[in-house]
Amino acid sequence: MAEALYDVAVVGAGLAGKVAALRAAQLGSRVILFEAGRDANYPANSRYTGGVFHVAFKDIRTKPRELRKAIEEATGGFADDGLAMSLADTAARAIDWLGENGAIFGVGGELGFMRNMLYPYSLQEPGFPNHWPDKGADRLLNELEKRFLNLGGVFRLGTRGRQLTMSEGRCIGLEVETSDGRSESILATAVVLADGGFQGNPEMVKQHISPRPDALCARGAGTGVGDGIRMAAAVKGQLSEMHRFYGHVQCAEAVHNNELWPYPILDIIASASIVVDAEGKRFTDEGLGGVSIANAIAAMEDPLSSFAILDEHIWDVVGKEFLLPPNPTIEDRGAKIIRASSIEQLAADTGLPVGPLTATLRSYNAAVSSASVHDLDVPRTATSSTLSRAPSLISERELVAIRLSAGITYTMGGIMVDPDGRVMGLDGGAIDGLYAAGSTTAGLEGGPASGYVGGLAKTLVLGLRAGEHAARKTHSPAL
Protein backbone atom coordinates (compact mmCIF):
# COMPACT_ATOMS: atom_id res chain seq x y z
CA MET A 1 0.00 0.00 0.00
CA ALA A 2 1.57 3.28 -1.13
CA GLU A 3 1.94 6.24 1.23
CA ALA A 4 2.15 9.94 0.36
CA LEU A 5 2.61 12.97 2.61
CA TYR A 6 0.73 16.27 2.27
CA ASP A 7 -0.19 19.20 4.45
CA VAL A 8 -3.88 19.10 3.50
CA ALA A 9 -5.97 16.36 1.86
CA VAL A 10 -9.41 17.35 0.56
CA VAL A 11 -12.13 14.83 -0.26
CA GLY A 12 -14.65 16.04 -2.86
CA ALA A 13 -14.12 18.53 -5.67
CA GLY A 14 -17.35 20.47 -5.70
CA LEU A 15 -17.33 24.13 -4.72
CA ALA A 16 -16.52 23.47 -1.04
CA GLY A 17 -13.63 21.17 -1.84
CA LYS A 18 -12.10 23.31 -4.55
CA VAL A 19 -12.37 26.47 -2.46
CA ALA A 20 -10.74 24.75 0.53
CA ALA A 21 -8.01 23.23 -1.64
CA LEU A 22 -7.20 26.42 -3.52
CA ARG A 23 -7.19 28.60 -0.41
CA ALA A 24 -4.89 26.22 1.46
CA ALA A 25 -2.57 26.06 -1.55
CA GLN A 26 -2.51 29.86 -1.77
CA LEU A 27 -1.35 29.92 1.83
CA GLY A 28 1.58 27.63 1.10
CA SER A 29 0.20 24.19 1.89
CA ARG A 30 0.96 21.06 -0.09
CA VAL A 31 -2.56 19.98 -1.04
CA ILE A 32 -4.06 16.91 -2.66
CA LEU A 33 -7.68 16.96 -3.84
CA PHE A 34 -9.71 13.79 -4.45
CA GLU A 35 -12.87 13.45 -6.55
CA ALA A 36 -14.89 10.27 -7.02
CA GLY A 37 -16.01 11.33 -10.51
CA ARG A 38 -13.83 10.07 -13.32
CA ASP A 39 -14.45 12.56 -16.13
CA ALA A 40 -13.23 16.14 -16.49
CA ASN A 41 -16.79 17.46 -16.22
CA TYR A 42 -17.69 15.08 -13.40
CA PRO A 43 -21.21 15.58 -12.02
CA ALA A 44 -21.53 17.81 -8.95
CA ASN A 45 -24.36 19.81 -7.44
CA SER A 46 -22.24 22.95 -7.61
CA ARG A 47 -21.71 22.40 -11.34
CA TYR A 48 -25.46 22.17 -11.95
CA THR A 49 -26.45 25.02 -9.63
CA GLY A 50 -28.27 28.16 -10.71
CA GLY A 51 -25.37 30.09 -9.17
CA VAL A 52 -27.17 32.54 -6.87
CA PHE A 53 -25.03 33.48 -3.87
CA HIS A 54 -27.33 34.76 -1.14
CA VAL A 55 -27.80 34.39 2.61
CA ALA A 56 -31.39 33.57 3.56
CA PHE A 57 -32.56 35.41 0.42
CA LYS A 58 -30.61 38.53 1.35
CA ASP A 59 -27.88 40.12 -0.75
CA ILE A 60 -24.71 38.31 0.37
CA ARG A 61 -23.04 41.70 0.94
CA THR A 62 -25.70 42.82 3.41
CA LYS A 63 -24.39 43.96 6.79
CA PRO A 64 -23.56 41.03 9.08
CA ARG A 65 -26.09 42.03 11.73
CA GLU A 66 -28.90 41.94 9.17
CA LEU A 67 -27.67 38.61 7.79
CA ARG A 68 -27.61 37.06 11.26
CA LYS A 69 -31.19 38.21 11.78
CA ALA A 70 -32.24 36.78 8.41
CA ILE A 71 -30.62 33.42 9.25
CA GLU A 72 -32.44 33.32 12.59
CA GLU A 73 -35.78 34.09 10.94
CA ALA A 74 -35.27 31.62 8.08
CA THR A 75 -34.43 28.75 10.43
CA GLY A 76 -36.81 29.67 13.26
CA GLY A 77 -33.83 30.08 15.57
CA PHE A 78 -32.50 26.60 14.74
CA ALA A 79 -29.11 27.62 13.29
CA ASP A 80 -26.08 27.29 15.56
CA ASP A 81 -25.11 30.75 16.80
CA GLY A 82 -21.43 30.36 16.05
CA LEU A 83 -22.00 29.06 12.54
CA ALA A 84 -24.61 31.75 11.81
CA MET A 85 -22.17 34.44 12.93
CA SER A 86 -19.37 32.89 10.88
CA LEU A 87 -21.54 32.85 7.75
CA ALA A 88 -22.77 36.40 8.23
CA ASP A 89 -19.37 37.86 9.11
CA THR A 90 -17.41 36.06 6.38
CA ALA A 91 -19.88 36.20 3.48
CA ALA A 92 -18.72 39.50 1.93
CA ARG A 93 -15.01 38.63 2.22
CA ALA A 94 -15.68 35.19 0.77
CA ILE A 95 -17.58 36.47 -2.27
CA ASP A 96 -14.80 39.02 -2.89
CA TRP A 97 -12.22 36.23 -2.75
CA LEU A 98 -14.25 34.15 -5.17
CA GLY A 99 -14.45 37.10 -7.57
CA GLU A 100 -10.68 37.48 -7.36
CA ASN A 101 -10.29 33.81 -8.23
CA GLY A 102 -12.28 33.45 -11.40
CA ALA A 103 -15.96 33.93 -10.56
CA ILE A 104 -17.86 36.25 -12.90
CA PHE A 105 -20.97 37.73 -11.32
CA GLY A 106 -23.95 39.48 -12.78
CA VAL A 107 -27.30 40.79 -11.57
CA GLY A 108 -29.49 37.86 -12.49
CA GLY A 109 -32.87 39.34 -11.65
CA GLU A 110 -34.80 42.17 -10.08
CA LEU A 111 -34.82 40.70 -6.56
CA GLY A 112 -32.07 41.91 -4.26
CA PHE A 113 -30.67 38.48 -3.47
CA MET A 114 -29.84 37.97 -7.17
CA ARG A 115 -27.12 40.63 -7.26
CA ASN A 116 -24.33 38.07 -7.12
CA MET A 117 -25.25 35.38 -9.64
CA LEU A 118 -22.68 33.40 -11.60
CA TYR A 119 -22.48 34.44 -15.25
CA PRO A 120 -23.27 33.18 -17.87
CA TYR A 121 -26.60 32.51 -16.21
CA SER A 122 -27.93 28.97 -16.15
CA LEU A 123 -31.47 29.80 -15.00
CA GLN A 124 -32.68 30.46 -18.52
CA GLU A 125 -33.76 27.07 -19.82
CA PRO A 126 -35.69 24.52 -17.75
CA GLY A 127 -34.90 20.85 -17.97
CA PHE A 128 -31.80 18.76 -17.41
CA PRO A 129 -29.13 18.46 -18.83
CA ASN A 130 -29.37 21.60 -20.97
CA HIS A 131 -29.17 24.30 -18.33
CA TRP A 132 -25.62 23.97 -16.97
CA PRO A 133 -22.87 23.17 -19.57
CA ASP A 134 -20.42 26.06 -20.02
CA LYS A 135 -22.49 28.29 -17.75
CA GLY A 136 -21.24 30.25 -14.73
CA ALA A 137 -20.93 27.44 -12.19
CA ASP A 138 -19.36 25.01 -14.65
CA ARG A 139 -16.81 27.63 -15.71
CA LEU A 140 -16.07 28.56 -12.09
CA LEU A 141 -15.24 25.00 -11.04
CA ASN A 142 -12.91 24.67 -14.03
CA GLU A 143 -11.21 27.98 -13.22
CA LEU A 144 -10.69 27.10 -9.54
CA GLU A 145 -9.18 23.80 -10.64
CA LYS A 146 -6.78 25.50 -13.05
CA ARG A 147 -5.58 27.92 -10.38
CA PHE A 148 -5.14 25.10 -7.89
CA LEU A 149 -3.04 23.09 -10.34
CA ASN A 150 -0.94 26.16 -11.20
CA LEU A 151 0.02 26.40 -7.52
CA GLY A 152 1.30 22.84 -7.56
CA GLY A 153 -1.78 21.19 -6.15
CA VAL A 154 -2.43 17.53 -6.94
CA PHE A 155 -5.87 16.59 -8.27
CA ARG A 156 -6.94 12.96 -8.44
CA LEU A 157 -10.12 11.93 -10.26
CA GLY A 158 -11.80 8.56 -9.77
CA THR A 159 -10.79 8.35 -6.11
CA ARG A 160 -13.05 7.99 -3.06
CA GLY A 161 -12.26 8.48 0.59
CA ARG A 162 -12.79 5.26 2.55
CA GLN A 163 -11.39 5.59 6.06
CA LEU A 164 -9.73 8.24 8.18
CA THR A 165 -6.38 7.54 9.79
CA MET A 166 -6.15 8.51 13.44
CA SER A 167 -3.27 8.69 15.93
CA GLU A 168 -3.82 9.61 19.58
CA GLY A 169 -7.07 11.38 18.78
CA ARG A 170 -5.66 13.30 15.81
CA CYS A 171 -6.54 12.82 12.16
CA ILE A 172 -3.28 12.23 10.29
CA GLY A 173 -4.62 11.21 6.89
CA LEU A 174 -6.96 8.79 5.18
CA GLU A 175 -7.27 5.68 3.10
CA VAL A 176 -8.57 6.18 -0.44
CA GLU A 177 -9.74 3.79 -3.12
CA THR A 178 -9.13 4.34 -6.83
CA SER A 179 -11.60 3.50 -9.57
CA ASP A 180 -9.71 0.29 -10.34
CA GLY A 181 -10.02 -0.91 -6.74
CA ARG A 182 -6.54 -0.05 -5.48
CA SER A 183 -6.12 1.32 -1.94
CA GLU A 184 -3.70 4.06 -0.99
CA SER A 185 -2.69 5.56 2.33
CA ILE A 186 -2.44 9.35 2.35
CA LEU A 187 -0.67 11.02 5.27
CA ALA A 188 -1.71 14.63 5.86
CA THR A 189 -1.59 17.14 8.68
CA ALA A 190 -5.24 17.98 7.97
CA VAL A 191 -8.13 16.34 6.12
CA VAL A 192 -11.13 18.27 4.78
CA LEU A 193 -14.30 16.28 4.08
CA ALA A 194 -16.24 18.06 1.33
CA ASP A 195 -17.90 15.27 -0.64
CA GLY A 196 -21.50 16.45 -0.22
CA GLY A 197 -24.47 15.03 1.62
CA PHE A 198 -26.14 11.64 1.24
CA GLN A 199 -28.96 12.40 -1.21
CA GLY A 200 -27.47 9.86 -3.65
CA ASN A 201 -27.54 7.03 -1.12
CA PRO A 202 -31.01 5.38 -1.16
CA GLU A 203 -30.39 3.43 2.04
CA MET A 204 -29.46 6.56 4.01
CA VAL A 205 -32.32 8.52 2.46
CA LYS A 206 -34.73 5.79 3.49
CA GLN A 207 -33.28 5.70 7.01
CA HIS A 208 -33.45 9.44 7.60
CA ILE A 209 -35.72 11.22 5.11
CA SER A 210 -38.27 9.19 3.17
CA PRO A 211 -39.71 5.66 3.18
CA ARG A 212 -39.73 5.81 -0.64
CA PRO A 213 -36.45 7.20 -2.05
CA ASP A 214 -37.51 5.94 -5.48
CA ALA A 215 -40.53 8.27 -5.41
CA LEU A 216 -38.43 11.42 -4.97
CA CYS A 217 -37.22 13.62 -7.82
CA ALA A 218 -33.41 13.61 -7.67
CA ARG A 219 -32.89 17.18 -8.85
CA GLY A 220 -29.15 17.42 -8.30
CA ALA A 221 -26.12 15.42 -9.37
CA GLY A 222 -26.97 12.56 -7.02
CA THR A 223 -23.26 12.02 -6.32
CA GLY A 224 -23.34 12.66 -2.57
CA VAL A 225 -23.45 9.20 -1.02
CA GLY A 226 -22.44 10.03 2.54
CA ASP A 227 -18.81 8.84 2.50
CA GLY A 228 -17.60 11.82 4.51
CA ILE A 229 -20.43 11.48 7.02
CA ARG A 230 -19.68 7.79 7.43
CA MET A 231 -15.94 8.41 7.88
CA ALA A 232 -16.52 11.17 10.45
CA ALA A 233 -18.97 9.04 12.42
CA ALA A 234 -16.43 6.18 12.52
CA VAL A 235 -13.98 8.41 14.42
CA LYS A 236 -16.68 9.67 16.80
CA GLY A 237 -17.51 12.82 14.92
CA GLN A 238 -20.79 14.41 15.93
CA LEU A 239 -23.72 14.10 13.51
CA SER A 240 -26.93 16.13 13.60
CA GLU A 241 -30.24 16.86 11.86
CA MET A 242 -30.08 14.06 9.33
CA HIS A 243 -33.81 14.13 8.48
CA ARG A 244 -34.00 17.40 6.52
CA PHE A 245 -32.98 18.33 2.99
CA TYR A 246 -32.91 21.26 0.62
CA GLY A 247 -35.10 20.85 -2.42
CA HIS A 248 -38.25 22.09 -4.09
CA VAL A 249 -41.79 21.06 -4.88
CA GLN A 250 -41.96 19.51 -8.35
CA CYS A 251 -44.78 18.03 -10.38
CA ALA A 252 -45.03 14.25 -9.99
CA GLU A 253 -43.94 13.64 -13.59
CA ALA A 254 -40.53 15.18 -12.80
CA VAL A 255 -39.54 11.94 -11.07
CA HIS A 256 -39.18 10.31 -14.50
CA ASN A 257 -39.18 13.21 -16.99
CA ASN A 258 -35.82 15.00 -17.21
CA GLU A 259 -37.40 17.96 -18.97
CA LEU A 260 -39.29 18.84 -15.78
CA TRP A 261 -36.35 19.23 -13.38
CA PRO A 262 -34.52 21.00 -11.88
CA TYR A 263 -36.89 23.70 -13.13
CA PRO A 264 -39.67 24.78 -13.20
CA ILE A 265 -40.41 24.40 -9.51
CA LEU A 266 -43.86 24.57 -7.91
CA ASP A 267 -42.89 26.20 -4.60
CA ILE A 268 -44.88 29.39 -5.04
CA ILE A 269 -47.87 27.57 -6.54
CA ALA A 270 -47.92 25.10 -3.65
CA SER A 271 -47.70 27.92 -1.12
CA ALA A 272 -50.72 29.64 -2.71
CA SER A 273 -52.71 26.38 -2.75
CA ILE A 274 -53.86 23.83 -0.27
CA VAL A 275 -51.63 20.78 -0.37
CA VAL A 276 -53.59 17.64 0.45
CA ASP A 277 -52.82 13.96 0.97
CA ALA A 278 -54.60 10.94 -0.47
CA GLU A 279 -57.39 11.48 2.08
CA GLY A 280 -58.06 15.00 0.82
CA LYS A 281 -56.66 16.59 3.98
CA ARG A 282 -53.98 19.21 4.51
CA PHE A 283 -50.88 17.84 6.21
CA THR A 284 -48.36 20.70 6.19
CA ASP A 285 -48.09 24.48 6.53
CA GLU A 286 -47.98 25.69 2.93
CA GLY A 287 -46.94 29.17 4.04
CA LEU A 288 -43.51 27.96 5.16
CA GLY A 289 -42.57 27.62 1.49
CA GLY A 290 -41.36 25.02 -0.92
CA VAL A 291 -38.42 23.58 1.03
CA SER A 292 -40.64 22.81 4.00
CA ILE A 293 -43.44 21.45 1.80
CA ALA A 294 -41.00 19.23 -0.10
CA ASN A 295 -39.74 17.78 3.19
CA ALA A 296 -43.30 17.07 4.30
CA ILE A 297 -44.11 15.35 0.98
CA ALA A 298 -40.96 13.22 1.12
CA ALA A 299 -41.86 11.99 4.60
CA MET A 300 -45.23 10.63 3.43
CA GLU A 301 -45.77 6.88 3.11
CA ASP A 302 -46.38 7.55 -0.60
CA PRO A 303 -44.56 10.75 -1.68
CA LEU A 304 -46.49 10.77 -4.97
CA SER A 305 -49.93 10.86 -3.37
CA SER A 306 -50.28 14.60 -2.67
CA PHE A 307 -51.94 17.29 -4.76
CA ALA A 308 -51.85 21.05 -4.89
CA ILE A 309 -55.46 22.28 -5.07
CA LEU A 310 -55.84 25.79 -6.47
CA ASP A 311 -57.95 27.65 -9.02
CA GLU A 312 -57.44 29.04 -12.51
CA HIS A 313 -56.81 32.56 -11.20
CA ILE A 314 -53.94 31.39 -8.98
CA TRP A 315 -52.54 29.29 -11.84
CA ASP A 316 -52.75 32.20 -14.27
CA VAL A 317 -51.22 34.76 -11.89
CA VAL A 318 -48.99 33.05 -9.32
CA GLY A 319 -48.13 30.31 -11.79
CA LYS A 320 -46.39 32.87 -13.98
CA GLU A 321 -44.31 34.45 -11.23
CA PHE A 322 -40.60 34.08 -10.43
CA LEU A 323 -37.83 32.51 -12.51
CA LEU A 324 -38.81 29.95 -15.14
CA PRO A 325 -42.46 29.87 -14.02
CA PRO A 326 -44.39 26.59 -14.26
CA ASN A 327 -47.28 28.01 -16.28
CA PRO A 328 -47.37 26.91 -19.09
CA THR A 329 -44.03 25.07 -19.15
CA ILE A 330 -44.86 21.98 -17.10
CA GLU A 331 -48.00 21.25 -19.11
CA ASP A 332 -46.15 21.78 -22.37
CA ARG A 333 -43.50 19.28 -21.20
CA GLY A 334 -45.86 16.51 -20.18
CA ALA A 335 -47.23 17.25 -16.72
CA LYS A 336 -50.94 16.66 -16.21
CA ILE A 337 -53.03 19.61 -15.06
CA ILE A 338 -56.46 18.52 -13.81
CA ARG A 339 -59.23 21.10 -14.26
CA ALA A 340 -62.76 20.90 -12.89
CA SER A 341 -65.83 23.12 -12.47
CA SER A 342 -66.83 21.55 -9.14
CA ILE A 343 -65.32 19.80 -6.13
CA GLU A 344 -67.22 16.65 -7.08
CA GLN A 345 -65.67 16.57 -10.53
CA LEU A 346 -62.20 17.32 -9.16
CA ALA A 347 -62.53 14.51 -6.62
CA ALA A 348 -63.56 12.07 -9.34
CA ASP A 349 -60.69 13.07 -11.63
CA THR A 350 -58.02 12.96 -8.90
CA GLY A 351 -59.32 9.96 -6.99
CA LEU A 352 -59.54 12.01 -3.80
CA PRO A 353 -62.51 11.37 -1.46
CA VAL A 354 -65.10 14.08 -2.11
CA GLY A 355 -66.29 14.51 1.50
CA PRO A 356 -62.93 15.23 3.15
CA LEU A 357 -61.76 17.27 0.15
CA THR A 358 -64.86 19.45 0.33
CA ALA A 359 -64.48 19.93 4.07
CA THR A 360 -60.80 20.79 3.71
CA LEU A 361 -61.35 23.38 0.98
CA ARG A 362 -64.31 25.04 2.65
CA SER A 363 -62.74 25.22 6.10
CA TYR A 364 -59.63 26.72 4.49
CA ASN A 365 -61.63 29.35 2.61
CA ALA A 366 -63.56 30.19 5.78
CA ALA A 367 -60.28 30.65 7.67
CA VAL A 368 -58.92 32.89 4.91
CA SER A 369 -62.11 34.99 4.99
CA SER A 370 -61.90 35.41 8.77
CA ALA A 371 -58.12 35.89 8.84
CA SER A 372 -57.78 32.90 11.15
CA VAL A 373 -55.64 30.49 9.12
CA HIS A 374 -53.42 30.04 12.17
CA ASP A 375 -56.40 28.32 13.86
CA LEU A 376 -56.78 25.58 11.24
CA ASP A 377 -56.19 21.98 12.33
CA VAL A 378 -52.85 22.29 10.52
CA PRO A 379 -51.97 25.96 11.20
CA ARG A 380 -51.13 28.03 8.15
CA THR A 381 -48.54 30.82 8.03
CA ALA A 382 -50.25 33.98 6.82
CA THR A 383 -47.32 36.01 5.46
CA SER A 384 -45.49 35.99 2.11
CA SER A 385 -41.80 35.36 1.54
CA THR A 386 -39.51 34.98 -1.46
CA LEU A 387 -40.82 31.53 -2.36
CA SER A 388 -44.23 31.57 -0.70
CA ARG A 389 -47.43 33.56 -0.89
CA ALA A 390 -50.02 34.60 1.67
CA PRO A 391 -53.24 32.52 1.61
CA SER A 392 -56.09 33.56 -0.65
CA LEU A 393 -59.57 32.23 -1.42
CA ILE A 394 -59.76 29.27 -3.81
CA SER A 395 -62.75 29.27 -6.15
CA GLU A 396 -64.87 26.11 -6.23
CA ARG A 397 -65.95 26.79 -9.83
CA GLU A 398 -62.58 26.86 -11.61
CA LEU A 399 -60.54 24.30 -9.73
CA VAL A 400 -57.08 23.04 -10.67
CA ALA A 401 -55.16 20.10 -9.24
CA ILE A 402 -51.51 19.16 -9.79
CA ARG A 403 -50.02 15.94 -8.46
CA LEU A 404 -46.80 16.75 -6.62
CA SER A 405 -43.43 15.22 -5.85
CA ALA A 406 -40.55 16.21 -3.60
CA GLY A 407 -37.40 17.26 -5.42
CA ILE A 408 -34.26 16.64 -3.35
CA THR A 409 -31.09 18.57 -4.13
CA TYR A 410 -28.87 18.10 -1.07
CA THR A 411 -29.27 16.87 2.49
CA MET A 412 -29.03 19.52 5.20
CA GLY A 413 -27.79 17.34 8.04
CA GLY A 414 -24.50 15.63 8.63
CA ILE A 415 -21.27 16.50 10.39
CA MET A 416 -21.28 19.16 13.10
CA VAL A 417 -18.47 21.67 12.69
CA ASP A 418 -17.28 24.81 14.45
CA PRO A 419 -17.08 28.21 12.69
CA ASP A 420 -13.72 27.25 11.13
CA GLY A 421 -15.03 23.96 9.78
CA ARG A 422 -13.37 21.77 12.42
CA VAL A 423 -15.31 18.55 12.99
CA MET A 424 -16.82 18.34 16.46
CA GLY A 425 -16.44 15.15 18.43
CA LEU A 426 -18.99 13.42 20.62
CA ASP A 427 -17.16 14.84 23.64
CA GLY A 428 -17.97 18.40 22.50
CA GLY A 429 -14.44 19.30 21.41
CA ALA A 430 -12.98 19.65 17.94
CA ILE A 431 -11.20 16.62 16.44
CA ASP A 432 -7.66 17.77 15.74
CA GLY A 433 -6.78 17.75 12.05
CA LEU A 434 -10.27 16.99 10.76
CA TYR A 435 -12.47 19.48 8.90
CA ALA A 436 -15.70 19.42 6.90
CA ALA A 437 -17.36 21.89 4.56
CA GLY A 438 -20.36 22.18 2.26
CA SER A 439 -23.46 20.03 2.35
CA THR A 440 -21.77 17.27 4.32
CA THR A 441 -22.09 19.56 7.34
CA ALA A 442 -24.94 20.31 9.75
CA GLY A 443 -25.83 23.15 12.08
CA LEU A 444 -26.89 25.96 9.75
CA GLU A 445 -29.95 24.56 7.99
CA GLY A 446 -32.84 22.26 8.85
CA GLY A 447 -34.86 22.16 12.04
CA PRO A 448 -38.65 21.94 12.36
CA ALA A 449 -39.21 24.48 9.56
CA SER A 450 -36.59 22.93 7.22
CA GLY A 451 -34.87 26.32 7.35
CA TYR A 452 -32.76 27.19 4.30
CA VAL A 453 -30.00 29.82 4.36
CA GLY A 454 -28.36 29.36 0.93
CA GLY A 455 -26.33 26.32 -0.05
CA LEU A 456 -23.73 28.14 -2.16
CA ALA A 457 -23.01 30.77 0.49
CA LYS A 458 -22.71 28.12 3.21
CA THR A 459 -20.45 26.02 0.98
CA LEU A 460 -18.24 28.94 0.02
CA VAL A 461 -17.78 30.28 3.55
CA LEU A 462 -17.11 26.93 5.21
CA GLY A 463 -14.80 25.87 2.38
CA LEU A 464 -12.82 29.10 2.67
CA ARG A 465 -12.57 28.99 6.46
CA ALA A 466 -11.71 25.30 6.54
CA GLY A 467 -8.95 25.81 3.97
CA GLU A 468 -7.53 28.74 5.91
CA HIS A 469 -7.59 27.04 9.28
CA ALA A 470 -6.17 23.80 7.89
CA ALA A 471 -3.29 25.76 6.34
CA ARG A 472 -2.46 27.24 9.75
CA LYS A 473 -1.55 23.79 11.04
CA THR A 474 1.72 23.83 9.09
CA HIS A 475 2.09 27.50 8.17
CA SER A 476 1.64 30.86 9.86
CA PRO A 477 0.47 33.10 7.00
CA ALA A 478 -0.97 36.55 7.49
CA LEU A 479 -4.67 35.88 6.97
What would you report as the Rg, rounded to the nearest angstrom?
23 Å
Mean pLDDT: 95
In terms of quaternary structure, the protein is: single chain
Derived from helix and strand composition plus strand pairing, the structural class reads: alpha/beta
- Strand-residue fraction? 15-25%
Global outline: elongated
User: How many individual β-strands?
Assistant: 21
Q: Helical amount among residues, as a percent range?
A: 25-40%
Features:
alpha/beta; 8-stranded mixed beta sheet; 21 strands
Structure description:
By secondary structure, the protein is α/β, with parallel strands linked by helices. It has helices at residues 15-26, 45-48, 64-75, 81-100, 136-150, 202-208, 227-234, 267-271, 290-298, 312-317, 326-332, 343-350, 354-369, 455-472, and strands at residues 2-11, 31-34, 54-55, 58-59, 105-106, 117-118, 154-156, 159-167, 170-178, 183-193, 217-218, 239-240, 245-251, 274-276, 307-311, 338-340, 399-411, 414-416, 422-424, 430-436, 441-442. The chain has 14 helices and 21 strands. The two termini are 37 Å apart.
Would you kindly provide a brief summary of this structure?
This protein has 479 residues and is α/β, with parallel strands linked by helices. 31% of the residues lie in helices and 22% in strands. Strands 1, 2, 7, 8, 9, 10, 19 and 20 form an 8-stranded mixed beta sheet that branches. Strands 11, 13, 14, 15, 16 and 17 form a 6-stranded mixed beta sheet that branches. A 3-stranded mixed beta sheet has the order 12-18-21, covered by helices on one side.
